[in-house]
Predict the structure.
Amino acid sequence: MKKKAEDYEKFRVLLVELKRRLKGDVSMMSAEALGGSDSDSQDNRAPIHPAEIGTHSFEQEFTLNRLSDDGERLEQIEAALDRIEQGVYGSCEECGGRIPKARLEVLPDTPYCVKCASNLGG
């Protein structure tokens, strides 16, 4: 049974806000990972002392991994917004069962019910 987008308006608003926040985080982390353009910031420059190179590399790698994770989360949010528009939001993509609203309140972008998420390892 298809649901109307209005039935899940609260989740649409939550997803849009989460998307906005993540996009801001991605923009900020991208600037940091790429060295930034702020000439006043010492943190964005490559290290001069050899002992700092390992720390700098670790921080860059950590930031790039976070960017990758956030990019995947943004894709999941977009997919959830599409499901709302299509009227299938709240239905598990694996088994077709209903995803409880309590789960959606915690993970509004989840495409799976708890049982299927556990079976899929997520």
Summary: The mean pLDDT is 79. DSSP finds four helices and no strands in the chain.
